[in-house]
């Protein structure tokens, strides 16, 4: 687990984010998440399970297939509906993907949403890396970073028209905590950074530093 500061605060998500009103359920949820203990139970040196995933076109794939025998940086995000995820993946497209490509390391984004949500994310931001769906949150579960919205936040999401049971491929409201994991060519977990507070994400420079230090 990375001990240095790896965090970027997603301060501007295109005006789509609820304001940080103390009475706002989302602000309350973020505050609760920031106070929570670090959740990941992932063991560095363990093999990341090669779960059955879906590509943005709906075809079957996996992390192993997407990384094509090489190392990879795997980004777990919540979904195309999340403005913070949109901002983060745009930043990774611009600041992370090109540098990783030069090093022969794949960038792979994974969420629990249906493949059409993955396709929306990929096309909306012109993402030039795989954007995959993980029905059942298999990878998040294996990494110990699976969560669900607080009941008060889930109720407010519903009021705003977000039905996670329709968005998620498995019909649940479970979500991954925003996470970046680095796996080597053998599929072994070498580094992980988890953000229980979904308004923050891993800084691209921290990922590149880790890849370089790991000699991947």
From TrEMBL:
Which UniProt keywords are listed?
Antioxidant, Disulfide bond, Oxidoreductase, Peroxidase, Redox-active center
Q: Which InterPro entries match?
A: AhpC/TSA, Peroxiredoxin_BCP/PrxQ, Thioredoxin-like_sf, Thioredoxin_domain
* PROSITE patterns per the UniProt record, alphabetical: THIOREDOXIN_2
The biological process GO terms on file are:
cell redox homeostasis; cellular response to oxidative stress
Q: What is its EC number?
A: 1.11.1.24
Region of interest (Disordered), ranges: 1-22
List the GO molecular function terms. thioredoxin peroxidase activity
Keyword Oxidoreductase belongs to the record: yes
Which Gene Ontology terms of cellular component type are present? Answer: cytoplasm
Q: Which residues form the Thioredoxin domain?
A: 42-216
Reaction catalyzed: a hydroperoxide + [thioredoxin]-dithiol = an alcohol + [thioredoxin]-disulfide + H2O
Hey, which family's this protein in? Belongs to the peroxiredoxin family. BCP/PrxQ subfamily.
The protein's role, per its UniProt record: Thiol-specific peroxidase that catalyzes the reduction of hydrogen peroxide and organic hydroperoxides to water and alcohols, respectively. Plays a role in cell protection against oxidative stress by detoxifying peroxides and as sensor of hydrogen peroxide-mediated signaling events.
- Kindly provide the name given to this protein in its UniProt entry: thioredoxin-dependent peroxiredoxin
Natural source organism: Agromyces bauzanensis
């Amino acid at each position: 687990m990375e001990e240095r500061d790896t965090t970027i605060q997603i301060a501007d998500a295109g005006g789509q984010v609820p304001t940080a009103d103390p009475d706002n359920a989302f602000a309350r949820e973020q505050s609760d998440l920031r106070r929570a203990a670090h959740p990941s139970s992932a063991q560095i040196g363990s093999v990341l399970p090669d779960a059955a995933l879906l590509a943005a076109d709906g075809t079957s794939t996996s992390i192993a297939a997407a990384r094509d025998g090489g190392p990879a940086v795997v980004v777990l995000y919540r979904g195309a509906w999340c403005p913070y995820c949109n901002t983060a993946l745009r930043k990774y497209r611009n600041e992370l993907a090109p540098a990783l490509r030069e090093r022969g390391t794949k960038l792979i984004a994974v969420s629990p949403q249906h493949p059409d949500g993955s396709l929306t994310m990929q096309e909306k931001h012109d993402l030039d890396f795989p954007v995959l769906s993980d029905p059942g949150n298999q990878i998040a579960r294996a990494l110990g970073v699976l969560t669900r919205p607080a009941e008060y936040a889930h109720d407010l999401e519903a009021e705003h028209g977000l039905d996670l049971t329709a968005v998620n491929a498995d019909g649940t409201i479970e979500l991954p905590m925003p996470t970046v994991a680095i796996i080597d060519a053998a599929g072994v977990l070498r580094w992980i950074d988890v953000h229980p507070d979904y308004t923050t994400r891993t800084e691209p420079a921290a990922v590149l530093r880790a890849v370089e230090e790991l000699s991947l």
